[in-house]
């Protein structure tokens, strides 16, 4: 990751807080998914049957190069227990398409992805 420029990524200078009752462009449902980071969120687009999971659930762990639905390795996860709890929350959306923060889109439904991630557990 260092060779790819990870140390040169600039942070967000003026972040804006998002609340679960806020209407965002495109009308996604904000889903709090703490674990990877304290304030992590996912975005569910019910009208598109899609879920942007971000790093709450990935299909490629950039730290271990393992593929398939999982939470990010413990080295980059603030609280693995909470991260696994957030995966359960994602499954409640029943979205067909999952867009992870790392890896290929998952098109077999969030429930299947969540089951695989939960069975894999923290690593």
Description:
It contains 2 helices and 6 strands. It has helices at residues 80-91, 110-120, and strands at residues 29-32, 41-45, 50-54, 58-60, 67-70, 97-100. α1 runs antiparallel to α2 (110-120).
Average per-residue pLDDT, rounded, comes to 93
Q: Find the count of extended strands (DSSP E, 2+ residues).
A: 6
Structural class: alpha+beta
Outline the low-pLDDT stretches: none
Helix content: 10-25%
Strand content: 15-25%
Which sheet architecture does the biggest sheet show? 4 strands, mixed
**DSSP helix count?**
2
The SSE string, one letter per element, is EEEEEHEH
The radius of gyration is: 14 Å
Which strand order do you get reading across the main beta sheet? 1-2-3-6
Which geometry do the CA atoms define? globular
Give the terminus-to-terminus CA distance: 18 Å
């Amino acid at each position: 990751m260092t060779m790819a420029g990870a140390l040169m990524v600039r942070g967000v200078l003026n972040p804006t807080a998002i609340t679960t009752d806020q209407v965002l462009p495109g009308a996604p449902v904000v889903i709090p998914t703490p674990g990877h980071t304290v304030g992590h969120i996912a975005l569910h687009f019910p009208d598109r049957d899609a879920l942007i999971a971000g790093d709450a659930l990935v299909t490629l762990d950039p730290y271990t190069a393992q593929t398939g639905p999982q939470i990010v390795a413990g080295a980059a996860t603030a609280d693995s227990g909470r991260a696994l709890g957030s995966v359960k929350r994602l499954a409640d959306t029943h979205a067909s398409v999952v867009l992870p923060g790392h890896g290929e889109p998952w098109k077999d439904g969030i429930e299947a992805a969540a089951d695989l991630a939960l069975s894999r557990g923290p690593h």
